[in-house]
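sorry to bug you again but im stuck and you know this stuff better than me. what follows is a protein written twice so to speak, once as letters and once as structure tokens for the fold. mainly i need to know what kind of three dimensional shape the backbone takes. anything you notice is useful, everything is just below:
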Amino acid sequence: MRTAIFQIDAFTTRRFAGNPAAVMPMDVYLEDAQLQAIAAENNLAETAFLVPEGGDYRLRWFTPTTEVPLCGHATLASAAVVMERLEPGREAVVFHSASGPLTVKRTATGYVMDFPVRPSEPVSIPAGLAEALGVVPVEVYANSFNYLVVVESSQLLRSLAPDMAALIAMDRTGVIVTAPGDGTYDFVSRYFAPAKGIPEDPVTGAAHCMLAPYWARRLGKTEFHAFQASQRGGEIICRLVRDRIELEGNCVFYLEGHVEI
């Protein structure tokens, strides 16, 4: 069978920055093993698979090695595909997912997503984490998905070169590292998830569902201009609205075509 594929750089206004995602609309889902094989073949941080559901869409996300319950940049990319290619001019779309319904709306400059907040609690520094990162954290928070590690400065954060094998051995599949911003941004971050087949994710919407509540407590406000300081880099506007978070960003189309399955 032939099916459409789009590759989009998300959370950026220019190509070759932000986080690339593959988006593949389908009439019905293939078997899980086939979806995983396609994601591995695409070899991007995430491949999003879209299936129509009434006036909405069902959405699933796969890394090269596993299915994940939430992905921000591939949701943003999926919204761009729906609103710019599948249904041009559409102003909003609801995606039904493992994390519940996710609404994305068009804005004057891009798209804004409505995601669930991911609360976290302070924990002692887990054994091996400081050694894996090569820095002693100022604070560590955790939920069932990730560790959130706070370091002293954006300069220190940008210099990190973690031991990926050691991170794989941790009891969380991802490690977010964050620091205060350096003038332009309220805070900066990086995200490492080698256990999910993503050594470093360029820009991670789901990580900001955990980051924004932390920085809200620390800075005493609910809207942030955030930067993920990967090699590609990407910007996210975050707004806390009770137990939800709005993540706003832009997308750039890079590739459009078809694949043979």
